[in-house]
Design brief:
Blueprint (H helix, E strand, L loop, with lengths): L1 H12 L15 H14 L3 H13 L4 H14 L3 H14 L4 H13 L3 H14 L4 H13 L3 H13 L4 H12 L4 H12 L1
Length: 193
C-alpha cells in the first residue's frame, strides 16, 4: 500500500507536456485522491487519509460518493472491514442503492451479524424487487438459520422471477426436509458442506 501511495502521489505531480507528443490522459485528480485515501486507510494512517479525502470533497466529490468508492476499492482488494466501514459511512451520508445494500448484507453476513444482513438484503429488495442476488442471499441466510418457511417463500419468489437454477434446487431440498431439529441440522450440513 505504501508503494501505491508513493506512485499515486507522483502521478498527481505530473504535468502534461503540450506539443511534444500526446500525453496519456491522467485520471481526474479526485480519483487519484480517493485511491490514495484508500491505500492510507489500509495502512491505518487515518489522519493522512482524511486529509486526502477532504481534498477530494473540495474538488466536488460528495461525501456519499467518496465513501461509496472507497468501499468498492476495499471490496476489490478484499479489505472486508474497511469495505464495511466505508459503506456504513456512505449510508450515513445518503441512501445506498440496491447493489450496495446487497454488498453491505454480504459483509454483515461474513461478520456473523445475521440480523443486520437480513435488514440490508431486505432494503435492497424493497428498493429494487428485481435485485435477485439480494433475494437469493436472503433465502440462503434464512435457510442457514433454520427458518425453512421463510427460505421457502424467498426461493418460490425467485422461481416467479424465473431465477430457476439454484432456487429450484433449494426448494426441492426444503420440501424433503423433515421438521425435527436434528434432521434440520443434518440437512443444513448436507446443503452447505
Amino acid at each position: 500500500y505504501k508503494k501505491a501511495v508513493h506512485c499515486l502521489e507522483r502521478a498527481m505531480a505530473i504535468k502534461p507536456v503540450v506539443g511534444l507528443h500526446p500525453s496519456p490522459s491522467m485520471p481526474p485528480r479526485e480519483n487519484l485522491l480517493l485511491r490514495i485515501t484508500f491505500n492510507l486507510l489500509c495502512l491505518k494512517e487515518h489522519v493522512s487519509a482524511f486529509n486526502y479525502m477532504e481534498e477530494a470533497w473540495r474538488l466536488g466529490i460528495s461525501r456519499f460518493e467518496g465513501w461509496e468508492r472507497i468501499g468498492f476499492l476495499a471490496l476489490e482488494a478484499e479489505e472486508w472491514n474497511l469495505a464495511l466501514h466505508a459503506y456504513e459511512a456512505a449510508q450515513r451520508e445518503g441512501e445506498l442503492g440496491p447493489q450496495e445494500y446487497t454488498l453491505l448484507g454480504n459483509l454483515y453476513d461474513m461478520r456473523g451479524e445475521k440480523q443486520r444482513a437480513i435488514d440490508s438484503f431486505t432494503k435492497a429488495i424493497e428498493s429494487d424487487p428485481q435485485q435477485h442476488s439480494a433475494r437469493f442471499r436472503l433465502g440462503e441466510l434464512y435457510l442457514n438459520l433454520g427458518e425453512l418457511r421463510r427460505a421457502k417463500n424467498i426461493f418460490q419468489q425467485l422461481l416467479q422471477y424465473r431465477v430457476r437454477n439454484a432456487a429450484a434446487a433449494h426448494l426441492r431440498k426444503i420440501n424433503a426436509v423433515p421438521r425435527s431439529q436434528p434432521q434440520i441440522e443434518g440437512f443444513k450440513r448436507e446443503l452447505f458442506c
